[in-house]
Amino acid sequence: MSRKYPKVISHKRKQEIMAAYILITPAVFYLLVFLIGPILYAFILSFQDHNLLKPEQAKFIGLKNYFNLFEDPVFRKALYNTFKFSFYVVPLQTVLSLLLAVVANQNIKGRTFFRVSYYLPSITSMVAISAIFMFLFNRNGIANKFLSIFGFDPVSWFADPHYALYLIIILSVWAGVGVNMLIYLAGLQDIPTSVYESSRIDGASAIQQFFYITVPLLKEKTFFVVIIGLIGTLQIFDQAYIISRGSGGPLNSTMTVVLYLYNKAFGENQAGYASAAAFVLFILIFTLTVLQKKFFDEGTPR
Hints:
Layout: H1 11-45, E1 48-51, E2 54-60, H2 64-71, H3 73-104, H4 111-119, H5 126-136, H6 142-148, H7 164-190, H8 193-201, H9 206-217, H10 219-234, H11 238-244, H12 257-267, H13 271-298
Antiparallel strand pairs: 1-2
Helix pairs in contact: 1-13, 2-13, 3-7, 3-10, 5-7, 5-11, 10-13, 12-13
């Protein structure tokens, strides 16, 4: 019977292993201190009645925060607004991004200008974009002056609960479509031109090429765009906070889950209650992400 000898690690190999540990230490430290640590702390807070100004008086209350959340009509309204926002923004951004990428990928004069123009809103501050939209759609803004040409009365867009959220949807689609366009553009440039040339020889039209070649070959990019869009829209905060001045108005029509928990945490100092809202949002995002992945995986040929 052959004897088994312990594996000997050379001195050089030990140095490489030690160097690897040293290099990953800052990243591990960052994750533990600024990500995993706060998440665990917030999870503990979600079971407490915790006032930010009086942390020494915190007490364990179990699932009461979670039960109170779903009994609060404002939170239910925030959930409804958030899902409604995602329902409109994600499909619109995805479709428009793909169409713009197809246009920007064409061999036309000035295509670099169009690519930059489409992408520019994505790198502009959301505060600046929201301020521009508030200027355009205020009662004396350009939008009302344009509509008055056709005999329409002026509308207080952001003061009307029927229009406020839809304007934020338009704002978000316009501001976010550029990043997704670049993702699709990179995917389009990875598709071999020979595939299109072969289909053209077989008599495929441009529309058939789009639906039977472009769309299927960009499926992975679409999955990425949809998931990132879903996660981002469910965490909407900036636009709603700026346009409603933090109130979520009018009549909670722009109240979102993140704005709701922000107001509870820093407006009313209810850190435990806000942490519970944050974890409800996390569970929703995680569940929808898993469902989306399953949907895309089932449609992918093996």
